[in-house]
Each structure stands twice: as C-alpha cells, then as structure tokens.
Amino acid sequence: MEKEKLSKSTSSKAMKKILFLLLAVFIGTFLVIEGFILYFAQKEPQEEPDVLIILGARLYGTIPSPALQHRLDRGAAYLKGHPNALVIVSGGLGRGEEMTEASAMKKDLMAQGIQEERIFVEENSYNTYENFLYSIQIMEDENLGLQKEDLLFGIVTNDFHIFRSTLTAKDFGINAVGLPAKTPPSIILKSYLREYLSVLKYLILDRPKIFR
C-alpha cells in the first residue's frame, strides 16, 4: 500500500515537473518570438529595394481585404517614388475568392497608376513559403532576366508578418528587407498572437524543406 502511494506521489511530482517545463518552454519561446515579431514590425528599411514582392492576403470576391489594401497602398507609394523599381504580386485563388489574389493586386496597382509592364504576377501560392518558392521562378524566368543575387528585394506585407516573411525570403537566398504595412485595428491582437504559431510552424515544418 505504501509502495503504491509512493509510486503515485513520484508520478505526480514527475508530471508536475513535465508540465512546468512545458509551460516554461512555451513562455520562453513566446516571449522571444513575439519580441522578434514586434521588432521587425516597426523596422523601416535603410536601403532602397530594386524589386518589391507584395504578398497576397484575403479577397472579398474581387475586392482586397483591408489588410491586403494596406499592403497594396504601401507598395504603390514606394513604386511611385522609385520609377525604376519592379514588383512581383504573389497570391493564388483562396476560398470564396472570384479571382487570384495576384490578379486583383495587379488590377489595384494599375488603378493607382503603376504601369503594367512593371508588374509581374505569381498566382500559384497559398502561403508565405510558396510565395517565395514560386516568386523565385518568376525572377529566374528567362523573359524576366532577373538574377536574385544581384538585387535587393523589398517584402511588402502587414507589420506583424514582416519577421517571418523576411526570414523566409533570406532562407531562399533572397537579399531582402521588409516594408511593413499597417494592420487593420480590428485584427491586430489576433494577428500578432496567431503569428507566434505561424513562426513555429515555419521553423519546424517549412524551413527544413528549403535546406534539403
């Protein structure tokens, strides 16, 4: 009887230690990752990119969501001020969308006065990893004639997403800086919290694919 009690007590203590360790790991990784997310969200580039990559986000049918519109407005403002810069718009067809995100993005940029010949369309991607995987194919297309090693790329996305997107770009061998766009106030908290999980997923599942 006493042996059973001792065994249960030992098991209980071991379980508490495991739970405490898991909690400590969670808190530690959360603080570190959120720290990087917040730091890069506020960091403005010191250099002027040659090519922008604007990452896709949700459409309402054919209309950019507020988050995507912020990205497009940030990209358009840069392109107007740098007439020699080119842009790749990247995003596939999502659920409930009536056209690819990239097609809608191109249409919006042209409506803002950006010449069609400056815009290149990547419309096969469904996440940040694929954004860069397929954008690289666009860059290396013989007709485009861009060598990523010789160019500086500006990654345009909402501020909470800058850390993961620039990390992904650099893992693909892209010399990149982030151009943070605003995040709509209604989704700020949700976006920053969810981004912690997205960074973990990238580090554990997606990043190893790049280095195979």
How is the secondary structure organized here?
Elements: H1 2-41, E1 51-55, E2 59-60, E3 63-64, H2 66-81, E4 86-90, H3 101-111, E5 119-122, H4 128-139, E6 153-158, H5 162-171, E7 176-181, H6 188-210
Parallel strand pairs: 1-4, 1-6, 4-5, 6-7
Antiparallel strand pairs: 2-3
Helix pairs in contact: 1-6
Can you walk me through this structure?
InterPro entries: Cell_Envelope_Assoc (IPR051599), DUF218 (IPR003848), Rossmann-like_a/b/a_fold (IPR014729). It contains 6 helices and 7 strands, in the order H-E-E-E-H-E-H-E-H-E-H-E-H. The chain is elongated and about 70 Å long. The N and C termini lie far apart (about 55 Å). Helices cover about 55% and strands about 15% of the residues. A hairpin with a 2-residue loop joins strand 2 and strand 3 (about 65). With about 210 residues, it is α/β, with parallel strands linked by helices. The mean pLDDT is about 90. It has one domain (about 40-210): Rossmann fold (3-Layer(aba) Sandwich), CATH 3.40.50.620.
